C-alpha cells in the first residue's frame, strides 16, 4: 500500500510493481467459489469442464482475476488516491497450474481541477507470457502539497 | 447457424427494480472474500481513514446477492441433469433469465466505475438492465454477447460502483 503517491510522482511509461499470484491449485478456486457462493463446475469439476464444456482444463475464475487488477491499482493509489475506473476483457483462459502476473503501465496523465488522473493499461500474464485479461484503468491522484482525493469519490467535471 | 432468437432479443432494455442483498456487509463474509482474493489490506478488518469503518474489497458489493434463506436448492434440484453447469446466481441481478437454454456461459469482461467502498454493516442494493444482446461470428463460431449494466448503492443512496458486464453465451 503506497503511503502517498502524488500526480507529479508519476511519468508516462512507468510500470507499477507487479502483483504475483499463484501457482493456482484447485483449492484456490474452491476457496473463491465458496467465498462467493457460486458453484460453476468449470472451476472444480474436471470431467465437466473438459468433457461437457470442451475447455482445456479447470479455469481460473474471471471473477477472481478482476479482483487482482483492482488490488494492484488500489494498493498503488493508496488511501490518498482513488481507483476510478477499470475495464478488462477475458480474452484468454487461465487454467489450474498457472502462475499469474498482474501488471499495469502508465499511458497518460490528465489534470482535473481538484486532482490528477492517471491512465493505465492493465492486464494479467501467465507464466508462458500469454496475456489473458487486457484492459485500461483510470486512477485519481492528489496534486503535490494539496488535499487528498475526496472520499467518497466525486467524478471530475471534464 | 444463428443462436440469437427474437424471444431473447426482446429482453433488451429490461430494467430491474432496486432490491437489497439478503444480508448486510458481514465481517465474516468480507474475511473469506479477502482471503480468497489474497488481499491482506488491513482496512478490511479495522477502521482506517478516510473510510470511517472497516470496508469490503472494491468489487465485493457485486457478489452480495446470494441465495437467501428459504430459496430452492438448485444443486439438488438439478443433480440428475448432466447439462447442469452448477451456476447458482443467488438471487441473480433481478433480471429474468434469457431463453438461451443449453448454451454455455462465459464471463467476457467488464467496465467498472468505483465511487466508494461498502462498509461493514451496510445494506447494499442493486438495479440492473439488459443494455444490449447481440450475436457475432468469432474464430470459435457464433457467440451471443449479453451486456448487463448494474448499479450498486447503499440504503442511504451512496453509489458504490457501476458495472457494465459482458456475458458470452455459445
TrEMBL record, chain A:
Superkingdom, taxonomy of origin: Bacteria
Gene source species: Plastoroseomonas arctica
InterPro entries, per database record: HotDog_dom_sf
The protein's name: Acyl dehydratase
From TrEMBL, chain B:
InterPro entries for this protein: FAS1-like_DH_region (IPR039569), HotDog_dom_sf (IPR029069)
Source organism superkingdom: Bacteria
SUPFAM superfamilies associated with the record: Thioesterase/thiol ester dehydrase-isomerase
Record organism: Plastoroseomonas arctica
Pfam family, one: FAS1_DH_region
Protein name: MaoC family dehydratase
Residues of the FAS1-like dehydratase domain: 10-160
